């Protein structure tokens, strides 16, 4: 009651100056301490429940409203997509120059269809090893996706088909991670881990350290690799972003074929370790 | 099938999509070149026509959508108390609409397709009819697709029923790209940092700019960039005043010593602006069309959807620069106020890009506090649907209505905050709110997803229910590191800023990163759009329908 009287009083002499003076100069009497307007705390009344109808249906054709609502819901819903070329490079390696590519395309949003391809070969020779992967990708967290799909190999070794599961995403400290596990149609089990990070030197210059290891439970004739730690790669690439979507790079890349893989390579007359300057292009659209 | 076949096909498909997205429409003889800024229209019968063409921005044509052949469209000069019949003709190839931003009207005249009316089909028309009950500065814009981002907006000025008009100018601020907004969205979906052309660099670190190493590592650990102020920047946007690009600028005349009222409307689709006129104090006399007790400042930030009326009295017979700098300092919209035609103002350079702090992550811990905070503790916000679309929950969201906006602290001059605003007239509904409803503004920077309570408009058809005439407090909690200007259609609400009966009345409130803001409102019957006024955020789902029904139609929710 006292509050009501106070509100009435305040409204009656509701000049801005009054409220202002009051707020600043009033003695801490019980009346004056009563908060008014937006200074009052909120009560704890319950929320109403939802009505399952459209208010506008009373004024307009409900069919037209339903159509407009459906169209509005679709807005911004994609589908989205992109094609990304992670690596497309020429490797200068003491007279045995080679090339390598890795890229992917996707459509969707939280659920995506992903098409990925990678491969390498020596210049002037037939393609050594290539892969195409098709996978369904599902968002797990804001940064991680799980993927499942199939991979088809082609190239010098026997053409294997694999089932694939993967975890792909952005780790703390902004490391891009792709961890994949494979089971081939011949029961071969293998895994691949790729990690890279972009370090911006200037607005346009980006240094990218990158590492990749391949593990196998047995020899992988499809990739002409041996069991165990089958291969390891480390690289350092410096790219210049003419635009984010078009960025040529130079770098160095080391490749090791340890243990069985090295033996197999030497049998073919190849070297087990290589190091080379790389020139390539990174981009997307 | 060979690899090259596959690759080429993927490539072709993707290229096709990109081309579809990339171009607006080709410049050509068949497309008209629009005027910059429209004529004033008055009276009880007004016709507005939406059409496509090109807007010359600093001499270069950009695909645009105009109203009556101009960007912005005509300024509607109305009189409080009049009736209004607005016929909107849609000459576009897609559904269109116009929404009257800030006007109090029956919900079925509010103009949001799928919420308040069915929209206007291509080559169709629709007549809006409602009484004009208020006075002040408002605006109108399309609520369909990306049309607002392409120029479908205009000013509304309503003279009070009594009172003499004084010298005034309308300044419609906006942003416009030379590429289609869908192309911008496509880029953000692939790389949410795409338009941030001032990222943290090693060079900056070595030169002692930006954050020190330890803090950089902290941000990197969170997978966030403290330089993410705006997700679309001057890298692709041109900032306009009344349709004029920054090179060209827009000019207005004043009489030295005479007060001039600037009606500033932020019609930008994706940009906050910091407003100032170097050498001239800005006297804020109205916010969102509502008179406030005049308060003098040197700078203020205006969010998309907000309007401010500023009174300036240039003492000298010289040109003054009206600067509207984008909040990320990637560009500015420019206007010259001069005593005579042909005078040029000197514009200051862009100031350095500001950086976010832990306060902007809702993690401003009191010193010595031992509480361990995590970035994404869903138990702090039980109503939020945690998932891939929610990358943070503010651990300690603070009321930030007393903050001036990112990058405006400690400038050494007076910058407006919501706490400086006092309504000239006391609020009409002085009741205490019966209840409080909390709405979390959520998102995932990396995926470019935006939502409320972790749910997009698509994933949650669920409206926010209100009872007609109840008094309710809405508290918005920003669980993202971006500021969001939140707009409630068809209402003026009272911001909770400690001003009691003189709370500022607004229709759009900016919730600072990691912070919160509350308003009290008395809901009007109908379905009303409630959304972020960054248009791409709204398109991605940071929107709800506020569903207001008579109390008797609703069952009380079981406690
Ligand atoms: Cu937003």
Walkthrough of the structure:
The complex is a heterodimer of chains A (285) and B (559). By secondary structure, chain A is α+β, with helices and mostly antiparallel strands. Chain A has five helices and 13 strands. Chain A is elongated and about 85 Å long. Chain B is mainly β. In chain B, 56% of the residues are buried. Bound molecules: copper (II) ion. Copper (II) ion (CU) binds next to loops of chain B.
What layout of secondary structure does this protein have?
The complex is a heterodimer of chains A (about 280) and B (about 550).
Chain A: H1 2-12, H2 16-25, H3 30-33, H4 62-74, E1 80-92, E2 98-108, E3 111-122, E4 127-139, E5 144-155, E6 161-171, E7 175-184, E8 189-197, E9 199-200, E10 205-216, E11 228-240, E12 246-256, H5 259-268, E13 273-284
Antiparallel strand pairs in A: 1-2, 1-13, 2-3, 3-4, 4-5, 5-6, 6-7, 7-8, 8-10, 9-10, 10-11, 11-12, 12-13
Chain B: H1 3-22, E1 35-36, E2 40-41, E3 45-57, E4 60-67, E5 70-71, E6 75-79, E7 83-90, E8 99-101, E9 125-131, E10 136-141, E11 153-159, E12 168-177, H2 181-190, H3 202-206, H4 213-221, E13 237-241, E14 250-253, E15 260-266, E16 273-276, E17 282-287, E18 290-297, E19 300-302, E20 307-312, E21 320-326, E22 332-338, E23 398-399, E24 435-444, E25 449-452, E26 464-467, E27 472-478, E28 484-488, E29 493-495, E30 505-506, E31 508-511, E32 515-521, E33 526-532, H5 535-540, E34 543-549
Parallel strand pairs in B: 1-5, 2-6, 3-7, 6-11, 12-15, 14-22, 23-32, 24-27, 26-34
Antiparallel strand pairs in B: 3-4, 7-9, 8-10, 10-11, 12-13, 15-20, 16-19, 16-21, 17-18, 17-20, 21-22, 24-25, 27-32, 28-31, 28-33, 29-30, 29-32, 33-34
The complex binds copper (II) ion.
């Amino acid at each position: 009651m006292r509050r009501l009287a106070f509100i009435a009083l305040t409204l009656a002499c509701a000049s801005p100056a009054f409220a202002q003076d009051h707020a600043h100069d009033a003695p801490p009497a019980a009346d004056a301490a009563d908060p008014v307007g937006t200074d009052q705390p909120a009560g704890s009344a319950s929320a109403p429940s939802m009505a399952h109808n459209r208010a506008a249906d009373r004024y307009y054709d409900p069919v037209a409203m339903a159509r407009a609502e459906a169209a509005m819901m679709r807005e911004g819903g994609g589908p989205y997509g992109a094609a990304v070329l992670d690596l497309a490079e020429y490797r200068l390696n003491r007279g045995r120059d080679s090339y390598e590519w890795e890229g992917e395309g996707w459509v969707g949003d939280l659920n995506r269809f992903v098409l990925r391809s990678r491969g390498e070969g020596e210049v002037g020779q037939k393609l050594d090893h290539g892969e195409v992967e098709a996978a369904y990708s599902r968002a797990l967290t804001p940064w991680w996706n799980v993927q499942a799909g199939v991979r088809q190999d082609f190239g010098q070794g026997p053409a294997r088909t694999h089932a694939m599961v993967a975890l792909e995403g952005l780790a703390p400290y902004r490391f891009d991670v792709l961890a994949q596990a494979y089971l081939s149609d011949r029961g071969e089990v293998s895994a691949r881990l790729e990690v890279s990070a972009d370090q911006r030197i200037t607005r346009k210059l980006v240094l990218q350290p990158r590492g990749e290891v391949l593990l196998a439970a047995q020899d992988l004739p499809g990739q002409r690799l041996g069991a165990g730690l089958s291969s390891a790669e480390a690289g350092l690439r410096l790219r210049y972003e003419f635009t984010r979507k078009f960025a040529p790079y130079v770098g160095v890349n080391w490749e090791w074929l340890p243990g069985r893989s090295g033996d197999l390579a030497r049998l073919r007359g190849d070297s087990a370790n290589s190091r080379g300057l790389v020139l390539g292009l990174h981009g997307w659209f | 099938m060979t690899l090259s076949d596959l690759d080429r096909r993927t490539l072709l498909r993707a290229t096709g999509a990109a081309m579809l997205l990339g171009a607006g429409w080709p410049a050509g003889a068949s497309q008209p070149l629009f005027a910059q800024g429209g004529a004033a229209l008055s009276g009880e019968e007004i016709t507005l026509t939406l059409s496509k063409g090109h807007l010359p921005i600093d001499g270069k044509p950009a695909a645009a959508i105009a109203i009556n052949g101009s960007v912005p469209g005509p300024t509607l000069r109305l009189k409080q108390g009049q009736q209004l019949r607005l016929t909107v003709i849609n000459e576009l190839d897609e559904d269109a609409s116009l929404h009257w931003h800030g006007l109090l009207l029956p919900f079925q005249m509010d103009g949001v397709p799928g919420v308040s009316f069915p929209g206007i089909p291509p080559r169709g028309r629709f007549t809006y009819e409602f009484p004009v009950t208020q006075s002040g500065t408002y605006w109108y814009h399309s609520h369909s697709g990306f049309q607002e981002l392409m120029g479908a907006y205009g000013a509304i000025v309503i003279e009070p029923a009594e009172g003499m008009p004084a010298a005034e100018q309308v300044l419609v601020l906006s942003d416009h790209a030379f590429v289609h907004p869908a192309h911008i969205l496509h880029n953000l979906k692939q790389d949410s940092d795409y338009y941030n052309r001032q990222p943290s660099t090693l060079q900056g670190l070595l030169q002692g700019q930006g954050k020190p190493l330890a803090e950089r590592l902290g941000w990197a650990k969170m997978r966030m960039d403290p330089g993410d102020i705006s997700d679309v920047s001057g890298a692709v946007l041109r900032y306009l005043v009344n349709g004029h690009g920054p090179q060209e600028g827009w000019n207005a005349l004043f009489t030295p010593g005479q007060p001039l009222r600037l009606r500033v409307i932020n019609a930008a689709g994706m940009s906050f602006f910091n407003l100032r006129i170097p050498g001239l104090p800005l006297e804020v006399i109205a916010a969102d069309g509502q008179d406030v007790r005049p308060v003098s400042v040197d700078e203020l930030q205006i969010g998309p959807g907000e309007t401010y009326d500023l009174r300036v009295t240039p003492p000298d017979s010289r040109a003054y620069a009206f600067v509207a700098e984008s909040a990320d300092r990637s560009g500015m919209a420019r206007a010259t106020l001069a005593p005579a035609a042909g005078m040029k103002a000197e514009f200051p350079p862009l100031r350095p890009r500001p950086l976010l702090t832990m306060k902007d992550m809702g993690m401003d811990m009191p010193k010595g506090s031992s509480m361990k905070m995590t970035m994404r503790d869903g138990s702090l916000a039980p109503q939020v649907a945690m998932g891939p679309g929610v990358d943070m929950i503010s651990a300690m969201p603070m009321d930030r209505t007393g903050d001036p906006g990112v990058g405006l602290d400690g400038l050494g001059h007076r910058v407006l905050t919501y706490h400086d605003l006092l309504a000239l007239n006391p609020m009409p509904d002085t009741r205490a709110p019966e209840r409080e409803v909390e709405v979390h503004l959520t998102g995932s920077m990396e995926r470019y997803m935006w939502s409320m309570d972790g749910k997009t408009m698509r994933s949650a058809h669920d409206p926010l229910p209100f009872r007609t005439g109840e008094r309710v407090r809405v508290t918005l909690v920003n669980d993202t590191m971006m500021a969001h200007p939140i707009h409630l259609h068809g209402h003026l609400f009272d911001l909770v800023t400690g001003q009691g009966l003189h709370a500022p009345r607004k229709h759009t409130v900016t919730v600072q990163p990691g912070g919160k803001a509350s308003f009290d409102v008395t809901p009007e019957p109908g379905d009303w759009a409630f959304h972020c006024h960054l248009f791409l955020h709204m398109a991605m789902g940071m929107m709800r329908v506020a569903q207001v029904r008579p109390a008797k139609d609703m069952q009380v929710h079981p406690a």
